Amino acid sequence: MAASDRFSVLAILFLFFLGQIPNALPQSIIQISPRNHRVSDQDLLYCDSWRFSVETNDAGFWPTIPKRCENYVENYVTGDRYRSDSEFVAGDSLAFVRSLQMNDDGKDAWIFDIDETLLSNLPYYEAHGFGAEVFDETPFDDWVDLAEAPALAASLSLYNELEQLGFKIFLLTGRSEYQRNATEKNLLYSGYKNWERLILRGPSDQHKPAIVYKSEKRSELVNEGYTIHGSSGDQWSDLMGFAVAQRSFKLPNPMYYIA
Amino acid sequence: MAASDRFSVLAILFLFFLGQIPNALPQSIIQISPRNHRVSDQDLLYCDSWRFSVETNDAGFWPTIPKRCENYVENYVTGDRYRSDSEFVAGDSLAFVRSLQMNDDGKDAWIFDIDETLLSNLPYYEAHGFGAEVFDETPFDDWVDLAEAPALAASLSLYNELEQLGFKIFLLTGRSEYQRNATEKNLLYSGYKNWERLILRGPSDQHKPAIVYKSEKRSELVNEGYTIHGSSGDQWSDLMGFAVAQRSFKLPNPMYYIA
């Protein structure tokens, strides 16, 4: 084999392995290019107030982000502030954990939501206007099946810390049973492991509002003897209702609202 | 009397009446000079995330604002954003009111907190670091006795609109019975009128956490047959607990936290 042929083979092998790397390594960090849309001072003031209003749940239901805030939201979710806000909430959660008295009876529980809490669907929403379009279940389900959502870095760190402290971790998601395999695959791919239970919507949960379904599932855990110390979610419907956790942690999400 | 003497008397009378005007007219708008402290990009990112964390209640209890956010909070509460956020929340409240079905049985109720909800204590906090100092009850009580707190403009508009729509308005405050006269005087001075009931802490409420005291008082209203459609407050302890309103509206307040 001539030297040039050997080089070609090496080059092909190199390119082959290069192509494999993104699928072979856990892809736990969101890789998305930051937007720097120009937003006028008036829109900035309005959209900051809009974001206050949705993150405190003052707004109640909203179907899509306001037209004039589309660029603002793109800047936010692709930029430093989303990461910073997420890290702050993880810090709040850890500060609480360090202050609490665990029962150490194997029943100390923490609940995590999945979408926009453990896993980021930014690559999907990037292709769908970051919340500018009305939610469409069909393409989103195709995205879920790909099992390629990256982890939210701050949540992954918090998750690992809680797991090492001995918390039983429950994943309580609005996803359905038929998505169990894809969801487990995605969680492992993004670096999550050793959860106690993954709770998905069964046939009888399909038409319940998230706040009812999630409250019922929390209630079942309480009846099993678990102490729900904390709960992390990007939607108020992850956190409110009944059988709520001792402390609830609202992660940022200005892209969509789930009742 | 010479012409120059007559002019002097008129000038003195003019100055005398000018001095009286601020006390004679309802002073319903916050008059405070906007701060424009220089805040570094890192502090801005950190303090925006801190504000997210306290406004969503992720932070839980916090005694004073973080040192590095003192200038940020001064800029916020004296600037456009506090006004804009407050107006947005009032708008959310009105949008909800327009969507609801009133019972028209004389029992349609709305609850307002007072401090930093109907009345602004910014003139007091301006002299006390805008939340940089630990709360001190003695000077604050002296300030309450002055009965000079201005109205939050957005809340006054909302209040008037609700009153005209036929809501029974309940004022539920952490202030104590001995402050009833000063509180009523201040409310009237700032333009509020025709409330159904002003509920203050009685002797048996003194040592209850706000969230318990306020839940108990809401519960009494429910037992009297009132439908609590909405509740407005700057603290989560105004809004959470039991016997909560159909919808709760969290007003901004990055200056202090009440459990």
From TrEMBL, chains A, B:
Keyword line: Glycoprotein, Signal, Storage protein
Signal peptide location: 1-26
One of the record's GO molecular function terms: nutrient reservoir activity
CDD domains: HAD_VSP
SUPFAM superfamilies per record: HAD-like
Keyword Glycoprotein: yes
Superkingdom of the source species: Eukaryota
Function: May function as somatic storage protein during early seedling development.
Protein family per UniProt: Belongs to the APS1/VSP family.
Protein name: Acid phosphatase 1
Organism per entry: Morus notabilis
